[in-house]
Design brief:
Distance between the termini: 42 Å
Number of strands: 11
Strand order of the largest sheet: 4-3-2-1-5
Structural class: alpha+beta
Radius of gyration: 16 Å
Number of helices: 3
């Protein structure tokens, strides 16, 4: 797979970043760097796309208009497409929310599991 500037990446640790710059030896993902000699392993363990919605998975949390929603996949509603169920029991697809610029932030399920305090 050819990795290009402008693509989003989701690492095996659940970090989602945008590729900002590629130089001779370094791939720059916003606040992360990946050195050229490590990129082959990185690519094998990550997902890349120009469309950030391709990287959203069931169980991730989206903040939409200040409210946190868990991403769902339901065969009965939304034809198995990833969506959220709003407070008033309506469904909105992930693609629609991004197209309308309503998503403020993403917390991946991997980030949640890593940071959660278990009692």
């Amino acid at each position: 797979m050819k990795i290009e500037v402008g693509m989003y990446v989701r690492t095996k640790y659940g970090l989602i970043r945008k590729l900002d710059k590629i130089t001779k030896d370094i791939y720059s993902f916003q606040d992360r760097l990946c050195f050229k000699e490590d990129i082959d392993n990185f690519i094998k363990e990550a997902k890349f796309s120009y469309d950030i919605t391709d990287l959203i998975e069931v169980g991730d949390v989206l903040v939409v208009d200040g409210i946190k929603y868990t991403v769902l996949q339901n065969k009965e509603h939304c034809n198995n497409i990833l969506h959220i169920k709003t407070i008033d029991n309506h469904y909105s697809t992930i693609k629609y929310l991004f197209e309308q610029n309503k998503v403020e932030s993403i917390l991946t399920k991997e980030q949640f599991e890593r940071e959660v305090y278990k009692i």
